Amino acid sequence: MNKLTFSLNYRKPKSEYKRSEELMICIRYYHKDSENSKARIIKKSTGVKCRLKDWDTDWHKNSNRYPVKSSDPDHERKNKLLIEKVEAFKIYELPAQQKKQDFSTLLKSKVPDGELKNKWTTYKDKINLVNPANKRNIDVIVVGTGLAGGSASATLAELGYNVKTFCYQDSPRRAHSIAAQGGINAAKNYQGDGDSTYRLFYDTVKGGDYRSREANVYRLAEVSANIIDQCVAQGVPFARDYGGLLDNRSFGGVLVSRTFYAKGQTGQQLLLGAYSAMNRQIARGKISMHNRHEMLDVVIVDGKARGIIARNLVTGEIERHSAHAVVLASGGYGNVYFLSTNAMGSNVTAAWKAHKKGAFFANPCYTQIHPTCIPRSGDYQSKLTLMSESLRNDGRIWVPKHMKDVEGLRSGKIKAVDIAEEDRDYYLERRYPAFGNLVPRDVASRAAKERCDAGYGVNQTGEAVFLDFSSAIARYGKEQALLKGLDVNNTSVVTNLGTEIVRSKYGNLFQMYEKIVDENPYKTPMMIYPAVHYTMGGIWVDYNLMTTVPGLYAIGEANFSDHGANRLGASALMQGLADGYFVLPYTIGDYLADDIRTGPISIDSKEFDEAEKLVKERINKLINNNGKNSVDYYHKILGKIMWDKCGMARTEQGLKEAIAEIKQLREDFWNNVSVPGQENEMNTELEKAGRVADFLELGELFAKDALERNESCGGHFREEYSTPEGEAKRDDEKYTYVSAWEYTGQPSDAKLHKEELLFENIEVKVRSYK
Amino acid sequence: MNLNLKIWRQKSKKDKGKIVDYPIANVSEHMSFLEMLDVLNEELVSKGEEPVAFDHDCREGIFGMCSLYINGEAHGPDRGVTTCQLHMRKFKDGDTIFIEPFRATALPVIKDLIVDRSSMDRIQQAGGFVSVNTSGNTQDANAIPIPKENADLAFDAATCIGCGACIATCKNSSAMLYVSAKVSQFSLLPQGQVEAKDRVINMVNKMDEEGFGNCTNTGACEVECPKGISLDNISRMNREFLSANFGLKK
Ligand SMILES: Cc1cc2nc3c(=O)[nH]c(=O)nc-3n(C[C@H](O)[C@H](O)[C@H](O)COP(=O)(O)OP(=O)(O)OC[C@H]3O[C@@H](n4cnc5c(N)ncnc54)[C@H](O)[C@@H]3O)c2cc1C
Ligand code: SF4
Ligand code: FES
After folding, report:
1. Kind and range of the H or E element at B224?
2. Mean pLDDT of A368-386
3. Local confidence band at A96 (pLDDT 50, 70, 90 cut-offs)
4. Would you call A367 helix, strand, or coil by DSSP?
5. What class is the A371-533 domain?
6. What pLDDT is stored for residue B250 in this prediction?
7. Are A186 and A224 in contact (CB under 8 A)?
8. Helix, strand counts (H, E) of chain A
9. Mind listing the pLDDT tens digit for each residue in B86-118?
10. Disulfide engineering: B180 pairs with which of A127, A267, A630, B233, CB 3.0-4.6 Å?
């Protein structure tokens, strides 16, 4: 079936359009690569528009009819143009498309058939289920207690499975998710500003620079509303307005207000919700919780994930745990950069061990560098602190226009407030008038780097820009003064009133800033600079969230699925809870349905023996190495290579160097690292050593992936592929795929498998926020 | 600046433990307290000695992972912050600083400055939840409006990070502030009403069972709490407790 046809580009269900609305006409080209493959659709805008009532739905039934009816005064010209477009398409597009990519047949996305908006519902109706009596005989291991792992553990236990949950902290409540500040998205449309499931889906795919899987993203948008209902029922105290209803704010990259929040502690409140749901199941004996345990390997029996090897971090004991399926919810790997906004213990170990046991690792180079973090202050710096994106709702970002002011600031002769309004360069508002300070994160970060590279950085290190609240304070102050009948021209009254409003919105963030920097951000603008924050890449999963290893699942930040090459703010929390509460608990049933007669999995098998032996050997090697350098010594060097060569801007040359340098550093690590203490006791250096050893492998694959992707998309910016104005240049023809890497012995020898990305419900466009 | 650190070292749960002196030089006032300890540890490791074990993770004052009793105060001399948010500018050249673990019968030391806080989790397991299923059959979130004032108060109570400073500070090692924060959060919201009675009784009983002391209203916990959890929560919990036990009006 190779077919060329026309269609209207619907952005929402047809029934929601008025008959008089104008829609773009697209060419659709259906074709199959071989007899048995799925039909692929290429969609291309014709630039010709047509009102709904002038569209002849049955035009193709008769060779004499044309798409645009004669009721359109301009129908003749339009139809002629359409014919021309088709001819042009045939001549120019078809040969190019025939240079087909070698997409992998190993990667089965398992996206169900049917219309996008019905896929999930129909699929859920048909999926295999395990009956409640049988669930009692099935064990599931969950590694991680963040929003993803916590919610999954609670729901799986509630459904009746026996759940064993692991985390390396001393309590499940301390998973990294608790640090999330700004909020969680949901397509509730409580503000009545035109939000919908489709719009959230559209924003997420566009925000991700068209590098995510449509069906997964749509499902995420679909279940998002339910998350809010669920959390409120659990007693999560979201912010409310004076009428007692839920309040919303906006985040970058979108034009609606759909972010639910609990001051600057949204992650905390959501995680405590999941934690309390877990506690209920722990009390019922359905979850057995293993705190201060670190997973060090997955055990595969007969090709299926059947357990893990974990180290008890208090006693040092190496333990075996078996189950019918293993779920990884171990978070992201931003700490490969040493300095990031992630918790100190966040690691890639669980994911990396799974990768080495057969799970493909997808898009490792997609990293998010968050634009608003507190700049670093010295070499002893141990981590970076995020200032939530929500601040960009009210803060304006600028640097001085003139070099003399920059110099004045650095030498301490002048302060930010001394610089006159007209001498300030609000560069985001200048470059991106439509979105202004609310452009997506990757765009905002690169713009800050551009200004600082050009020499306009406002602190000693030259790596900082201002985030200024004075306009917001004045604006809110005037509003309040008017409401209260006070004098709007009295600056001190207005400032005080405005300050109070800003405090009520961001109080804890301002306090955090003041404690760290020792400056009052109500009075002087904050200084910020981009920092590593989130990793879009992760373990490859199919629509069921299963990895390439049967029975091994990955959810939350640990997987690669929903955010493409760039994540929008407030969407990670949404994804974690969607995966854990609403998706995995269903899809895992489909796999476990075959295990109802398996019985308990024994830990006395050669596979467990073997895995445990390797884990112990590695630990002994680290302990007995007697080298001369500390673990942090290596981690810092690795971090610097990553930041300089695989950071906000990457080049072919730099990436090649990074690969060589990381390889060498890894060798040096294994020869010269020193880990004091013993293996059979609590040993925090040993824990760090194991994590850094894995980062040293991941870093190399990361650089390799970035080198392979000869385009700029989302968080991955290659200098060679940019416009003269510094905007990213994507290459859809060559790179509309997921890079999934198979481990073959050395990170740099990893084998690339490509999953093709098809966009059937969204027109792929250049991402513009201008 | 140069400092003289006196740090509690204890090899394991069973070990007796003692204070050991560690002089440290060239500490920058911009460092956080934990970064200062990182520098010390780096020095110890390079000498082949075992570093000082302490709990930490987020270094943003939100996980509640870090602890430390610094010069006799939980989370050190600054107010409204956790140890990881404490900065060296609060100290001056030549200072002697005592660094000890949080101490309470219910929070035994595991190693050096690390304590076992699992008893605090067990109190939550006794009732710190709303019994709602998590599979999604819930009503619309805006179906029950909640007065902003109550929502805000519930939020304030819910910001407890479970660090245990209140317990370590209290001369009776009471966990009242910590427990009352959770009880208050739910008692201020309609969602938590159905099980309010059982919740407060079960949590208080569990607290006693785990070996936490009684509250004698010294108020020290409120002063040291890094999140500003207020004593009002304790009064609110006492009212809940009385009404649950004796049917008194709240
Ligand atoms: C400072 C900050 C602010 C953020 N703000 C927002 C926001 O406002 N909105 C938003 O949507 N997103 C935000 N994010 C992103 C979001 O918080 C994370 O992506 C998300 O919380 C990840 O959740 P998770 O459940 O996948 O993993 P995590 O919460 O990272 O949990 C990982 C879990 O795995 C466990 N674990 C890891 N490795 C092992 C191992 N080897 N063995 C045993 N256990 C292990 C850990 O103990 C932990 O329990 C923010 C991130 C940061 C850093
Ligand atoms: S009440 Fe305060 S001091 Fe006590 S555990 Fe909670 S946050 Fe820590
Ligand atoms: S390290 Fe997280 S609260 Fe201090």
Report:
1. helix B220-224
2. 91
3. very low
4. strand
5. alpha beta
6. 52
7. yes
8. 21, 22
9. 999 999 999 999 999 999 999 999 999 999 999
10. B233
From chain B, pick out residues whose CB is under 8 angstroms from the CB of A241. Answer: 148
Examine domains A371-533 and A607-756 and report if their fold is the same.
no
Domain with CATH 1.10.1060.10 in chain B: 117-131+143-245
DSSP annotation string for A740-766:
EEEP-SSGGGPEEEEEE---SSS----
CATH 3.10.20.30 describes domain B3-111: yes
Look up residue A251 and give its amino acid.
F
Catalytic residues of A: 441
What does the H/E/C string look like for A105-162? CCCCCCCCCCCHHHHHHHHHHHCCCCCHHHHCCCEEEEECCCHHHHHHHHHHHHHCCE
**CA–centroid distance for A768 within its chain:** 20
Please name every residue paired with A713 in a beta bridge, in sequence order, or none if there are none. A716
Would you tell me which residues 190-249 of chain A have a C-beta closer than 8 angstroms to some C-beta of chain B? 190, 223, 226, 228-235, 237-246
Name the strands in the sheet holding B96-100, side by side, starting at the edge strand that comes first in the sequence.
B18-24, B3-9, B96-100, B69-70, B73-74
Domain ranges of chain A: 3-100, 371-533, 607-756
- DSSP assignments along A647-703, one per residue: SSSB-HHHHHHHHHHHHHHHHHHHHHB---S-SSS--HHHHHHHHHHHHHHHHHHHH
Higher-confidence residue of A17 and A576: namely A576
Residue of chain A nearest B49, judged by CA positions: A676
Tens digit of pLDDT for each residue in B151-186? 999 999 999 999 999 999 999 999 999 999 999 999
Q: Which CATH architecture has domain B117-131+143-245?
A: Orthogonal Bundle (1.10)
Looking at residue A97, its pLDDT comes to 43
How confident is the model over B20-68, as pLDDT tens digits?
A: 999 999 999 999 999 999 999 999 999 989 999 999 999 999 999 999 9
Of ligand 2's listed atoms, the one at least distance from the Cα of B175 is 4
Residue A201 pLDDT more than 80?
yes
In CATH, the number for domain A607-756 is 1.20.58.100
**Model pTM?**
0.90
* Whole-number average pLDDT of chain A: 93
| pLDDT of A342 above 70 | yes
Q: How many CB atoms are located within 10 Å of the residue A770 CB?
A: 9
Q: Binning pLDDT at 50, 70 and 90, where does residue A56 land?
A: confident
In this complex, the residue of A173, A233, A240 whose CB is nearest that of residue B132 is: A233
Residues from chain A contacting residue B110 (CB–CB below 8 Å): 314, 682
